[in-house]
Amino acid sequence: MESGGKAHPDCINASNPHHECVEYCFKRIEEAKSRADEIVEENKESLKEPKERTVHPDCINASNPFHECSEYCFKRIAEAKDRIERNESGMQQEDGIPSSFSGSHQSDAPLEQKQTEQLNDGGDAHCVQDDTVSGNPNLTEKQKKLFELRLKMNEARKANQMAMVAEKKKMEAPAETRGISKQKWLDERKKKIGKLLDSNGLDMSKAYMLDTQETAEAKYKKWEKDPAPYGWDVFNQKTLYNAHKKRTKNIECDMEAYNKAKEADPEFYREASSLQYGKATKVPEENIDRMVKELQDRDAKRKSFSRRRKFHEEKDIDSINDRNEHFNKKIERAFGKYTLEIKNNLERGTALPD
After folding, report:
1. pTM surpassing 0.85?
2. Fewer Cβ neighbours under 10 Å: the N or C end of the chain?
3. Gap between the terminal Cα atoms of the chain
4. Given this model, what pLDDT does residue 43 score?
């Protein structure tokens, strides 16, 4: 071919607009063509598709046009069929379903898919062990060794993943020292309610329709109850008056004796300008005893009062008594994030000397 100032289409530099093929380029093109022809001639016999093949339709390699089933393939197919039948019969016995009913629906799936599923679930390991024990002549020693190595790799991979998950849990600091956090519990409860509302075709504004009668009554009682005072409201006149009524609710008052004492003393309610201001009035002994009893009952009630605290059995015990437990909580709040890595190393044993 004569070079007319243009690049040959088979030249490796044909994409270069400024390239012009010379004698060296044509020589390289001819060498590449001759080498390709030699490769085609060498592999012509191997590239031919066999006209007649003995391939079972249930074989997992049936899609390969160059595969021919051997005794090993038929053995694997028979074992897979037998395993599928045994699994189906076991499931039917557990569920109490007749075999004629479940078999008609489960047999529609292709056998190739069932074989692959069983191989993924561990059937491969079972078959490889059988082959190694029985010494199937169709498998060479290298293939048997390769299967064994694959099994060991799968076991090592699973163990590694489990160790990684455990390591990640230890490295992540817990959100709460005891139990689940309130915000997390509220989020999970909101998700559950949302699923129930979606299944009933409702939105979050209609969440009250899921409440039972008892739950609704408890909510109404809680809403009707006045909130407890906090801050400076504890010392205002209304709060003090309510506390006075609560304390005197169980004290009996003798109105006849009260009226008699009021009539006998014209200045029963003295003012600062009274001449009898500061003078002690006569109080019956039973009234004094009643007041002392009320003070004693109040003191006993204050001593017996204690806030209810949740106790979680799954939490690790790291204290010897309640006081030590309270101290450990304060230490954990202050220095827990700095000592987390040290604790994890001690639990794993990596912080200990060899």
Report:
1. no
2. C
3. 78
4. 64
